[in-house]
Amino acid sequence: MENIEMNSNAPAAAKEEPKKVIFSGVQPSGLLTIGNYLGAIKNWTTLQDAYDCLYCVVNLHAITVRQIPADLRRRTYETLAIYIACGLDPDKNTLFVQSHVPAHAELGWLLDCYTMFGELSRMTQFKDKSAKNADNVNAGLFTYPTLMAADILLYQADLVPVGQDQQQHIEICRDIAGRFNGIYGNTFKIPEGFMPKTGTKIMSLADPTKKMSKSDSNENGYVAILDPRDVIIRKFKRAVTDSDTVVRYAEGKDGVNNLMNIYSCFTGKTHEEIEREFDGRGYGDFKMAVGEVVADGLTPVQARFNELMKDKAYLEEIMRRGAENAQRRARRTLSKVYRKVGFVEI
Ligand code: ATP
Ligand code: LTN
Q1: CA 213 to CA 322: how far, in whole Å?
Q2: Strands, E assignment, 68-135
Q3: Which atom number of ligand 1 is nearest to the Cα of residue 203?
Q4: So where are the chain's domains?
Q5: Is the pLDDT score of 17 beyond 90?
Q6: 211 catalytically annotated
Q7: CATH class of 219-309
Q8: Which of 11, 143, 223, 267 is the most exposed place for a label (fewest CB within 10 A)?
Q9: CATH topology (fold) of 21-195+312-341
Q10: Does the pLDDT value for residue 2 go beyond 50?
């Protein structure tokens, strides 16, 4: 996959040319973590002026793992509120909820018929999640990448900003689109992954060889965007490191490397600057400092979030506006696809 490196001053789209389209989403399957923040949402905010961006709360994807209905409903509002609290402007971006746009499920089914069993079987997320949910290895979990391809292809997205773990899903999306275009002529734009320079893979604090994940059963593994200050500090204090004592970025020091990455994302400091800053100081000091910068960085996000959650009507208005806009755009692609495959239009 050709990945473009993002930087904070993303290039402005050339004059006269329509803006490039960006699509991405997060599942409302738990409390969003600093992994979601650094790997995805924080970077989305740097793109909102130069690109035509659609950001979705992907609740259809979330039910591939069993959810408690009341939690799913609440988290849908929360995820949207977090998007806005992190700095996504609802007037500049199309913010919407996946289940409000039926074309996602419709194109998802259609693309299932152009996706091979073998290629879905190779997806590492499917293998990981089926191992984790052995009692519920459902067909949706298996075809998850096809629905994700539908999300992206419906809007003819040029770029998809995601963390490293989604690279394989972008790849299969490109393969499916290419296959469909090969049979029916040019129908879908072939999208590209769009990875940030840093923060693409934040690891678990409890097991730094594993990705930090909001659905981790061990709460000490992740820091949620909404965790209170004392919880954030406590989780960093407990973070797994190693028996060495030097704050240094090196192979085999997964825990320390991860903390350095997090510290770097929140302060803008390089690894060398961090090594110098903590020269001669122990891990205790370092962990405390990481906890503090993360808590400080999240304070304004949490304040804005709390305000937004008090105003459900406002959030519903954003959902409605987003859904209308997304529906109109998605229908255009879906009609084209239906015509191409030979569905009768009435
Ligand atoms: P779940 O645990 O429910 O599978 P998740 O925490 O892995 O969820 P997703 O909703 O699957 O999060 O991912 C949303 C976005 O956040 C994706 O772009 C993904 O690449 C990014 N992301 C998730 N976890 C991390 C992480 N640990 N580091 C960097 N980016 C991440
Ligand atoms: N699969 C992604 C969430 C997701 C997504 C998308 C991301 C669903 N549809 C479309 C980008 C584009 C995940 O698990 N992180």
Answers
A1: 27
A2: 94-97
A3: 27
A4: 21-195+312-341, 219-309
A5: no
A6: yes
A7: mainly alpha
A8: 11
A9: Rossmann fold (3.40.50)
A10: no
